[in-house]
Every structure is written in structure tokens, then in C-alpha cells.
Amino acid sequence: MSWQLKILRVFLRRVARRSLARQPDSVAARKWFERGAWLNARGRPYTSFTSDSLGRVPALWTALPTPGAAVILYLHGGGYVMGNPRTHAALAANLKRKTGLEVCLPDYRLAPEHPFPAAFDDALTAWRALVAKGHAPEQIILGGDSAGGGLALALLGHLCATGQPRPKALFAFSPFTDFAFEGPSITRNARSEILLPISRLENLRDRVLQGADPRDPRISPLYGTFIGAPPVLIQVARTEILHSDSTRMVQHLRAQGVDVTLQESGNLPHVWQYFHGWLPEARASLSDAANFIRAQAGPPPSAES
User: Fold this and answer.
1) What total of structural domains would you count in the chain?
2) Of all helices (H) and strands (E), which one includes residue 234?
3) What are the φ/ψ torsions at residue 20 (nearest 5 degrees)?
4) Which of 205, 278, 284, 301 is 20 to 30 A from 8, comparing alpha carbons?
5) What was the pLDDT predicted at 300?
């Protein structure tokens, strides 16, 4: 464990987790997340990004891609109630540096103003718009963290279940895959969880679902169909309350013949990759993810192609 991680663990557990648990509503939580993202990134990297529109869904690109190049469609985390392309711009920029691929961040709608299935509908709209812009499905790598990782998996499951073209691959950091909260790690890791306030899970579900079925595969991909899915990479920490969201998702995918790589780490916070500017462990995990992405995407197109 690095000395940076030792310090960050204390800060997240004693300050960030308690502060997040005290946020009275989604508007306050969004402002809290924005402030934290600014501190984490040491600035506003999104100011150099390029705005775009994917159908009705606004988006930010690290830069507009070269025609014919592979790209990453990345769905940000935040429990479906907070987060946006700006909060995840630093992570997207790091993925671009490590993979050489441009990253697109859709600004999907958030609950409770836009409850389920708004986020899924926007993710599907963004996917279709990206394909309509000339990016073949086999040129697109899907990715996401936490709720965004679950959303990426939900989108993949929908494409598989409806017989549509699939992306080249998918990667997810600590994905949220089961809104029924049936994973044993939610109680088993209640004491070891570093960042997520366990006491707010039921409230989060109420805000997002507003009475919808928590096992709907558009919000809980653990219950989805993935026959014919491309390779998947999932990274998760063993101490997270969402650890079994990942391990059960891996089992579910493998049972349907999907090539899945699970990378489990030790005593790390939820989506530790987000803290790549501070943690050597985060940079190492992002390098592993980048290796997976580049292996799936293949070499960039030549100048003659």
C-alpha cells in the first residue's frame, strides 16, 4: 500500500464518506461532487474538451476523433443522481493518454428529475448517434465507472438481447449492477467500505427507480442477456460494498460464454481509478485497463487508410 493511499483512505473514510452521507438532496450532492472533482483534478481539464451532440444528448470529447479511428464511449458514475462529463474529464484525459483513443462523455439525464429509464434511454441514444456519425460498432469501446459501468453493461445487454451490432469491447470500474441490493458484500463489507455511505442506498434506489422494478436489466444488468457479447474487463476492490456486484456479474457473463477478465485489488476505495492524479495504484490499474483496450481496439489506422 502506497503512502498516498494510506492518507487518502483516512480522508475518504473520515471526511468524504461522512460528507456525502449528509447531502440533503441530489442538487446538493451534485455540487459536492463538482467541488471534489475540481480538487481531484487540480483544475478544470474539461475546458480543453470539444462539445458535441449525440442525438438529443450533449457530450464532451477529449478531441474529435480521426475518421476510421477506434473511440471510447465512456459513461460516468455518480449513482444516477450526480456526476457529468466535467467531473470525469480528468479520467477521460488519462484514458486518452494511455490508449491513444479519443474519449466521448455523454451528459445523460439524472434522477430524481429524470428517473429510470432516462439514463438508459440517453445511453442508447448516444450509442445510436455515434454509429450514425460513421463510427462502426466494432470501432467503439464501451466503458464506465460505478453506475456508469452498470449503464454500459445494461446497454451492452440490450444490444445483445435485441440482436443489434455490439461494441468491440467493454471495461468497467466497480460497476453498479444490481439495484435489488442482493449482493452479499453490501453487508459483508459494511465496515471495510471506504467511500460509499451505506445508509443512503435505499434512498438512492427510491430516487432513481421511483417504483420501477429493481431487476429490470436496463438498470440492473446482472439480470440481462449477453449471448454474443464481446470481451469484458471489470476492475473492483475486494473491500467495496459493491464487490459482489462485480463478481456475480462476471459469473453471469461467463455462464453465457462471454470472455471476461476480472481484476480484483486489495483495500482500495470505490472507483480508485478516479484518483489517478494521487494514487500510484490508480495509475497501475488504468495502465492495465489501457492494455486491455488497446489489445481489443488494435493499431490505429495508418495515414494511407
Assistant:
1) 1
2) strand 232-237
3) -65, -40
4) 205
5) 61
Look up residue 96 and give its amino acid.
K
270 is catalytic: yes
User: Is 191 exposed, middle or buried (CB count within 10 Å of its CB: 0-12, 13-18, 19+)?
Assistant: exposed
Strand partners, 74: 143
**Beta strands 260-265; 140-145: pairing state:** unpaired
The beta-strand segments (E) located in 116-163 are 140-145
Q: So what's the pLDDT on residue 203?
A: 94
Average pLDDT per block of 10 residues along the chain, 305 residues long: 93 93 93 94 94 97 92 97 98 97 98 98 98 95 98 98 97 98 95 92 96 98 98 98 98 98 96 96 97 88 43
**pLDDT score at 301:** 53
The single residue of 26, 146, 174, 285 carrying the catalytic annotation is: 146
Examine residue 302 and state whether it is found in any structural domain, yes or no.
Answer: no
Under 8 Å between Cβ of 189 and 183: no
Domain residues for the domain of 115 are 3-297
Catalytic pick from 243, 252, 270, 276?
A: 270
Q: Is residue 57 part of a domain?
A: yes
For residue 240, indicate whether it is catalytic. Answer: yes
Instruction: Name the packing angle between helices 89-99 and 26-41 (round to 10°).
Output: 40
- The CA distance from 94 to 89, in Å, is 9
Let me know if residue 254 belongs to a domain: yes
**pTM for this model (two decimals):** 0.96
Q: Would residue 305 count as lying in a domain?
A: no
Query: According to the model, what pLDDT value does residue 67 have?
Result: 83
Q: What pLDDT does 305 receive?
A: 34
Strand order in the sheet with 260-265: 50-54, 57-61, 102-106, 71-75, 140-145, 169-173, 232-237, 260-265
- Can you read off the three cell numbers belonging to residue 240? 467495496
The CATH number given to whatever domain includes residue 237 is 3.40.50.1820
